[in-house]
Amino acid sequence: MLRRVFKAFQYRDFRLLWMGACTSSIGTWMQKVAQSWLVLEISQSPFLLGLDAFLGEIPIFLFSLFGGVVADRMDRRKLLLASQFVQLTCAFLLAALIGFKVVEVWHILALSFVVGLAQAFGGPAYQALFPALVDQEDLPNAIALQSIQFNVARIIGPVLGGLALTKLGAVWCFTLNGVSFLAVIVSILLLHIRFVPVKTAASLLDSMKQGIGFIRMRPAMMSLIALAFCMTALAVPMITFLPVFAKDVFKQGPSIFTLFLSISGAGSVTGALIVAALGNMKHKGRVSLFMLICLGAGIASFSLSTSVAWSCVFLFVSGSAMIGVFATISSLVQLITSNEMRGRVMSIYNVAFRGGMPFGSLTTGWLVPIFSAPSVLAVNGVLLAVLAVYFLTVERKVSAL
Prior knowledge:
mainly alpha, single chain, globular, 16 helices, Growth Hormone, Chain: A
């Protein structure tokens, strides 16, 4: 069973990238804890908290298509390295601003946008490079293990970030995040895999049209992309607004916020382990939609809970269901896509998947002061369940996969 769960670790390049990305993700989550709390503490505004998340994600929505074309035209490792260096620089710059006590909210918002811009080019390169690290039959397992590393980091990072924030100060969270990027940079440099792009005379615009045409010829892919946008727009705000629940609903400090993030991350690891164990299972589409119903129910239950203990239970369930849905949908998209089109197709998927996050966060941030966080997020959970039922009973292209 363990050999089947961790099967993709037999590939050297996958192990290297997994360890580097895990280290970097731990640093990123340390910064997320400090950054979310810092924005809310400085501004006392849930809207600005949502705006920060929006500015970090909107460049991915706007520029990922260009990033996907570039990823199919150059060495994907070099593009990924450039993205990591930009993010490293932003982390150190923000640490310096905090250290010299000159940081303002607009500094944080501006650097969030720059980091998002770097991810708009690095994300498609990473997603296009990733399937080449393992054989195709092991791709669902590799994607699930990739989800595990992100969510292991989501458990460890907030714990370390919470300790650093409360004991050492926010500057250490940002500094350690900057240092953590060195791990993924080294792992990328050590990879044996090479991508030799096919030479083309097509313009950037024509290349983008080819990617869109590839998707339009596959109706199931169109449904997967629409589903990715809707589920991230409705599900991810639960994570974004955990500081509001900790501070305003439960009247607690950073320790409860850290606990919520860690419990959600533990649920996500559990969900990813289950998906990894199942491997290249049948009826992935149908399974993902049933998990989406569980996710909607978990979010709605967490939003309406008045007990910290029960909130942790619902966060664990929703975290497990969320990563199960994300990993399964991502596997389906990767398996349908050919390698020469992967950068462009994954950039379009990335626009939908990551594009839902800023719009969901901004809309939720606008609605929370009017209707309260529990009410808004409970509605999000119900809408997710309704969305899953729609794709199960009406628009059945996903459930047929």
